[in-house]
Target: Sodium-dependent transporter
Amino acid sequence: MEQNQQWSSKIGFILASAGSAIGLGAIWKLPYVTGTSGGGAFILLFVLFSLLIGFPLLLAEFVIGRKTQKDAIAAYKHLAPNTKWYYIGYLGVFTCFVLLSFYSVIGGWIVQYIFYSVTGQVGTGNADYEALFNHAVSNPALAIGGQALFLIVTAFVVGKGIQAGIEKASKFMMPALFVLFIVLIVRSLTLDNAMEGVSFFLMPDFSKLNSESILFALGQSFFLLSVGVSVMVTYSSYLKRDDNIIQPSISIVGMNLFISIFAGLAIFPAVFSLGFEPTAGPGLLFIVLPSVFEQMVFGQFFLLMFLVLFLFATLTSAFSLLEIVVAVGSKNNNNRNRQAWIMGIFVFILGVPSALSFGIWSDVSIFGKSIFDAADYLVSNILLPLGAFLISIFVSYKLKKDILKSELIRGTKVNFLFEAWYFLLRYIIPLVIIIVFLDVTDII
Ligand code: PFF
Model:
């Protein structure tokens, strides 16, 4: 099917794909995984993986989408007719499904925190944030209610369609998030003992790395950039054929890495200064940041603003996750709305056990992990690397080199960039994924 939607402006595409990429990965997940995986060495590895593996893959997905102008499954069918390569698309859709099921749980926590912030339960100076967090995540009605609300907004916006739904708001919300992070960092860095947190976050100590944390860093870089699931194929299919993809991908990777570093610089100094544990896990941000806001003038107001922007960043990622499923399912735009709601309901049902796994189902374990952790592990450390591996092989072995060249560099003279990209995709990326993966299965 030829896509009949198109981005109304280039900035719309950049902001929406950046919106997909920037979300929980940079703001919530990276800090907590860094905390549990040893700090600076993990961050260094994660940045390297993002630049040398995630970035080329992002470009590869953009090439597929813009060239074919088709959704995540049709694109592969078009490029490799009568083969099974389109299963990459189905793998992506399935991955997005599972991903959104637990993503929405955290979205639900943010919704709850907005409520606590409005009612003065956070940010006013006298709360025990660990207790509050435990209550928020373990109470089944609150956890599931928050998740449902988050998914309702997601289905509503995706049902309305790309232009109307996603493009408009990104234009001012993302810059606002950047600014607020800078304010937060300034406050966090001027707390007593802040430098201890900075050095935990940025000084590499390689003795803290092990095979599993290397896999986490790899999975985190895919998660962060939304690659490996063909979401970026679908988004770039709405581009015009001669729109530039190199510059947008640089902005997307750059903005996301900045936000990642910003989040760490906002959180870790405060962790050390205020006596929290860097290994606190999924609650890290929710426990630490309210305490930082408390130390600010107009803290309660800024906290609310932060939560709203954080929710927005999370929603724009969720839109892309549901979008890919809807784009595949609705052959024309007539049933997009219905499809969005149906899929939203399925995602919700799948996500409820994850939501409950912080409370009444916390004892249920799958391979020694809680349901939430197992779902996250499956996506981040198995499905995303697998999708990324297949995409790198597909693009570099299945598509012709000169076609790729003309697609990627479009008349510019940056030949060496193309060669480097091609080399990474063809040799380095598949090899690194295999090595990291096998290394972990070895130790398990
Ligand atoms: N990149 C998003 C984040 O970091 O929060 C998560 C994500 C969205 C991953 C969309 C994959 C995806 F297709």
